[in-house]
Each structure stands twice: as structure tokens, then as C-alpha cells.
Amino acid sequence: MYVFYSALLAVWLLITLPYWLIQMGRHGKYRAGLAQRFGKLPDWLGTPPSKPIIWVHAVSV
């Protein structure tokens, strides 16, 4: 069942990908912050310090 579900999601992604790419091109809201969502930090943060960094990820429900 897991393989079927994963395959279904992959097919759905391929079918809907053109729609999302068109929407991203037409409206800035999909494009805004895209680089940051993929891990590119804004320039105003500067270079990361040489000391170890602790990341805290939390969700409020």
C-alpha cells in the first residue's frame, strides 16, 4: 500500500507541476522566499559564525 501511495503522489506531482510553475511565474507570492525555503540565507545575516550552532525547530498546534 505504501508503494502505491508513493507512486500516486509522484504521478500527481508530475501532473500538477506545470500548473504550479505557471502560477509561480504569474504571481510573486509563490516565488517570494523560495530560495530561503531551500536553505539560502539572506545576505543581511552575514557569514555564519565558526562556533557550533544549535537549531531549534518547534511547532505550535
Word description of this protein:
- This protein has three helices and no strands.
- The protein is mainly α and 61 residues long.
- The model has no long low-confidence stretch (mean pLDDT 86).
- The chain has one domain.
Keywords:
mainly alpha; extended; 61 residues; single chain
How large, in whole angstroms, is the Cα Rg?
A: 18 Å
Largest sheet: none
The helix content, as a percent range, equals 40-55%
Name the poorly predicted regions. Answer: none
- Whole-number tally of structural domains: 1
Task: Explain briefly what this protein structure is.
The chain is mostly helical. It contains three helices and no strands.
